[in-house]
Amino acid sequence: MIPAVVLMTLLWSTDLQAQSVSPPAEYSVRLVNGTTSCSGTVEVFYRGEWSGLCTGWWDMMLEVKVVCRELNCGNPVAESRGGLIEDRRIGVRLLRCSGDESSIRQCEYIGGKPGVCYGAYYHHVTCSESVRLVDGAGLCSGRVEVKSNQSWASVCEADFDRQDAEVVCRDVGCGAPAALQGGLYGEGEGQTWDKEFQCKGNESLLLDCDTSDRENNTCLPGNAVGLTCSEPDDVRLVGGGSRCAGGVEWYDQGEWRTVGAEDWDVAAVVCRQLGCGSTVSVLPGNTTRGFRVSCSGPESSLRECRRTYDLHPGLTVICSDLLVQPDIFLTDPMGGVSRGHQGPEMFRGYNFTITCSTQPQYPGGSFLLTFIGSNRTQTQPAVNHSAAFLFPAADDSHQGNYSCVYDNYVFSHNFSSESELLSLTITASPLPAFIIRHVVVLLILLTTITTSYLYYKPTRRQKRVNRVSSMDLYVNAMEMVSLSSRAEAGPGEERAAQGTE
Question: Is the pTM above the cut of 0.85?
Fold first, then answer.
């Protein structure tokens, strides 16, 4: 009897505990099967169970941004679509979000309310875990905020440097830092981060960096770090002979995939992200392997656009900055050029050459050498991707700024690219040119004579030494003969000889 009572008591207490745990709110969101608490497959709690999503479009700046915000995570970093949900499994039908909602339940639904669907795709989302950029123009710019005890704190400019910025940009899925300035994106309303980062610059996440106590506990207004990162290197144009022309490809889920679209808005975003200027031409591709992308136009990168995985013809884009920037440089065969503070300096009376060149990209084309501030121009065809402009004698009229403009007709359009400026200064020669030439000739003759003298002098000295040595040997020999004769003569003869002497 007692064991039965104990069993009933245990069951009753367990039931009370189960009833005390409140179920998630309807339309709550979570990420499952991810590597962190801010990554995984999106699930929505609907009608007492966790289900996937049935939306066809999925936007990093809209739906993904709301998911990251609801889970108190940072910036949207990546999004991908997984395989089909199991047949007959219920999913929640979501239309779209505006990006400003605090929860996914505030987004719009088809028909004005949620519904169920079967066999749809599911979405995998990655958000930054401990850092975010807020109030910026896109995903790669904004005020730096760090998660501290489940709240977000601004970072003081004095506690942040270039190496820290490199890690933050990498953590939020962007490229290298482009601008770092305090107060660039406002001050924020929360607290200030109370540590100083000690990043080396090669860490993958900001959480991997060492920290130390701040030297100064105050952060003056206008010093909250604003950071602008370059756009991610996940878009490219292929098959056009230039990084600014070709079929659009997007790096997605570990591979380069063809992008399909119907309008110029996508092309405008691609040209902007690649730093290739504006759109010149948009042509349909010859493939149907691309996933469809739709942009509104002002997005900073392609990942901020809406996309679906429905197959769509590929897209070929031609951007205005098709040609690489040419080079310009000055040469002088007479040695009359020197390097000044403002650029090359040329002596009057010397001839010089300005050369324009470009990288091998497209055949043909021409170079226009422009003298800035005047109507003086010269044009030559590009031979081996370069052209040389000869000036017979430098005078004051040649002083000024020059530039090379490379023109070429490619893809049924005229394209041009201009070099940097070459600033040329004309100065007086220390001596007239003809005197310098004569002095050079005399120096060459003097050098030749000196070299010959130094070469032949040891030989003559050796001959003179040899002649002196021979004379000494002759004198010594004669003295020995004389001594020998005296030794053979008697004393009288020797005295007679001395008397004769």
Answer: no
